[in-house]
Amino acid sequence: MAHLLQHCHDTGWLVLAIAMIQFYMQKGSHKGLYKSIQKTLKYFQTFALLELVHCLIGIVHTSMLVTGVQVSSRIFMVWFITQSIKQIQNEESVILFLVVWTVTEITRYSFYTFNLLNHLPYFIKWARYNLFIILYPVGAAGELLTIYAALPYVQKTGMYSLRLPNKYNVSFDYYYFLLIVMAFYIPLFPQLYFHMLRQRRKVLLGEVIVEKDD
Ligand SMILES: CCCCCCCCCCCCC[C@@H](O)CC(=O)SCCNC(=O)CCNC(=O)[C@H](O)C(C)(C)COP(=O)(O)OP(=O)(O)OC[C@H]1O[C@@H](n2cnc3c(N)ncnc32)[C@H](O)[C@@H]1OP(=O)(O)O
């Protein structure tokens, strides 16, 4: 069952890649691309919550912290930034993180699939543990630039914010929340990046590495 779900996930990101290439070839522009693929993206990125469940119930042996940060930050980007603020959907930075996520996920799920079949081509293993060196910072930059582009709109409209006075007597400012999220990239991004560097040494060079939260 888990294998079947994983196969669906791989196919989903492939469908997304084909849809993006087709759109760009037909329109010659990235404007409107997000709108055209949003349903598929929402579905498959939300589906990634299962990775956290697999981790929790012990089907997959990996760091909870790393998987949690990775999955929640992506779901946050999709639902609470890009999907919620139509005005930023045509930003180049959105395309940047979409392309990076898609390349990463196709490589990653191909790795899992061929690994399970015991026929893992070396180039897929190589791609899984080398491409991230460039893709991680580029993807994070795309995400941060997108949140940054959202700030003026969030400040102007006060979306998702709760101002005083109100019957709950609590206030929440989404604008400042986004600034905090951006600041969190500083301590959390290196955790993810160094985790993948350790995995790279383990898988490609055969080093024995002990994770702190294992
Ligand atoms: C709510 C507010 C949010 C606030 C956010 C604050 C800021 C956070 C900053 C975060 C920055 C994120 C930036 C990021 O989004 C940008 C990008 O992603 S750019 C793209 C580059 N990214 C990557 O390359 C990372 C991709 N992700 C991963 O590789 C994984 O998600 C990771 C969590 C990193 C875990 O990888 P790891 O190698 O540690 O473990 P695995 O899970 O791959 O593998 C463990 C073993 O399990 C087997 N496995 C796993 N899943 C499957 C499966 N579906 N089917 C079969 N087998 C599976 C795998 O083969 C391993 O087995 P073994 O140990 O036997 O080798």
Automatic annotation (TrEMBL):
Record keywords: Endoplasmic reticulum, Fatty acid biosynthesis, Fatty acid metabolism, Lipid biosynthesis, Lipid metabolism, Lyase, Membrane, Transmembrane, Transmembrane helix
InterPro entries according to UniProt: Tyr_Pase-like_PTPLA
Q: Which reaction does it catalyse?
A: a very-long-chain (3R)-3-hydroxyacyl-CoA = a very-long-chain (2E)-enoyl-CoA + H2O; (3R)-hydroxyhexadecanoyl-CoA = (2E)-hexadecenoyl-CoA + H2O
**Where, per UniProt, does this protein localize?**
Endoplasmic reticulum membrane; Membrane
Q: What is its main location?
A: endoplasmic reticulum
At the top level, the lineage of the source is Eukaryota
Judged by the first EC level, this protein's enzyme class is lyase
Q: What is its EC number?
A: 4.2.1.134
Pfam families referenced in this protein's UniProt entry, alphabetically: PTPLA (PF04387)
The UniProt transmembrane annotation reads 12-28, 49-82, 94-117, 129-154, 174-194
Q: In which pathway does it act?
A: Lipid metabolism; fatty acid biosynthesis
A GO cellular component annotated for this chain's UniProt record is:
endoplasmic reticulum membrane
- Molecular function (GO) terms listed? very-long-chain (3R)-3-hydroxyacyl-CoA dehydratase activity
Its GO biological process terms?
A: fatty acid elongation; sphingolipid biosynthetic process; very long-chain fatty acid biosynthetic process
Topology in the membrane?
Multi-pass membrane protein
The record's annotation in PANTHER family points to:
VERY-LONG-CHAIN (3R)-3-HYDROXYACYL-COA DEHYDRATASE, VERY-LONG-CHAIN (3R)-3-HYDROXYACYL-COA DEHYDRATASE 1
What does this gene product do? Catalyzes the third of the four reactions of the long-chain fatty acids elongation cycle. This endoplasmic reticulum-bound enzymatic process, allows the addition of two carbons to the chain of long- and very long-chain fatty acids/VLCFAs per cycle. This enzyme catalyzes the dehydration of the 3-hydroxyacyl-CoA intermediate into trans-2,3-enoyl-CoA, within each cycle of fatty acid elongation. Thereby, it participates to the production of VLCFAs of different chain lengths that are involved in multiple biological processes as precursors of membrane lipids and lipid mediators.
Q: Give the UniProt family note.
A: Belongs to the very long-chain fatty acids dehydratase HACD family.
- Indicate what this protein is called per its UniProt record: Very-long-chain (3R)-3-hydroxyacyl-CoA dehydratase
The gene it comes from is HACD1
